[in-house]
UniProtKB/TrEMBL annotation:
The keyword Disulfide bond does not apply. The keyword DNA-binding does not apply. It comes from Streptococcus mitis. This is HAD hydrolase, family IA, variant 1. Pfam families: Hydrolase.
């Protein structure tokens, strides 16, 4: 979605700013799927690492619950990425009970990180509109920085940037999981201001999240600009995907034939419904043995 950057100076005088900060996901780059789909794909890879002795659904649940528990227990805003992977590893070993000597933490950390990087890189694309504006700002002598609430660390962000050829645009990168503070609380912004040794008025924040990228910095005296973005690739709403994932996890249906493919099935059903609605179809025939299962899911989706 294009953004009218020329209107930016009418709302905020970016020319007066020393630093201009950009959000990363859905502002500078875009995924072609919901983040939860990426986490579930990662869980499948981890299931393979453990020779399918533990399902992707269980691994997905372990990762989500480990993050929540660690934050609550230690009263953290954000958990470091490597610490999260360690928690996942040891929780899986405790579930397996046997064969624990067959797995090495360092090997797992390398494998888990590599899988996450490969999956993210498969699903990303650059926002040319934003990058063109960043190039324009650089030509006008502005210092460009990145501020992102993200579960992984700077290594993954930089790898994505290098693959897209945009690493050199950013003089500094601030990631919530590395610093332990989030934009949504305002604490990450205060950290950035302190690190840059500048006043809030000298910083401009640009991002897609109306709360963490716009309202929060404004409360701290930081000018902000909302770059709206609507993800056309996600037919199922983000909330629906998360709810569906949580339902699968809470039911602990580890023996289900289809639990590895929940994200793909959800997307297919929602896409099918959308296409049928556009074409005003009234009668649909689901064929083959798999058709019965798809029809049941389609009926549930349609009722909602």
């Amino acid at each position: 979605m294009e953004c009218d950057w020329m209107n930016l100076n009418k709302e905020v005088r970016w020319k007066d700013k020393q630093y201009i900060a950009f959000d990363f996901f859905d502002t500078t780059i875009h995924r072609n799927c919901h983040p939860e789909v990426i986490l579930f794909e990662w869980s499948k890879k981890i299931s393979i690492y453990f020779s399918f002795k533990i399902s992707a659904t269980e691994i997905y649940s372990i990762r989500k619950k480990s993050e929540i528990h660690e934050k609550q227990e230690k009263q953290l805003e954000e958990i470091k990425y490597e610490r999260l992977l360690q928690l996942v590893f040891y929780t899986i070993l405790s579930r397996l009970k046997s064969d624990v000597t067959d797995y090495n933490l360092e090997d797992f950390l390398i494998y888990a990180r590599t899988c996450e990087e490969e999956i993210e890189l498969r699903h990303i694309s650059i926002d040319t509109d934003t990058i063109n504006f960043i190039e324009f700002l650089k030509q006008n002598g502005k210092k460009i920085i990145l501020i992102s609430d993200f579960y992984s660390d700077k290594k993954l962000i930089e790898k994505i940037m290098v693959s897209l050829g945009i690493r050199n645009y950013f003089s500094k990168i601030f990631i919530s999981s590395e610093i332990g503070l989030r934009k949504s609380s305002g604490n990450l912004y205060e950290y950035v201001i302190n690190e840059l040794s500048c006043k809030p008025i000298n910083l401009l924040m640009i991002g897609d999240n109306i709360y963490s990228d716009v309202k929060v910095p404004k409360k701290l005296g930081i000018d902000s600009y909302h770059k709206s973005y609507s993800d056309s690739h996600v037919t199922v709403s983000p909330n629906d995907i998360v709810k569906a994932m949580n339902n699968v996890v809470s039911q602990a249906c580890t023996e289900s034939l289809f639990n590895l493919y929940i994200p793909e099935i959800l997307y297919f059903i929602s896409k099918l419904y959308k296409e049928l609605s556009v074409n005003k179809a009234s009668d649909i025939l689901f064929c083959a043995r798999e058709g019965f299962f798809i029809k049941k899911l389609f009926d549930l989706y349609q009722k909602k």
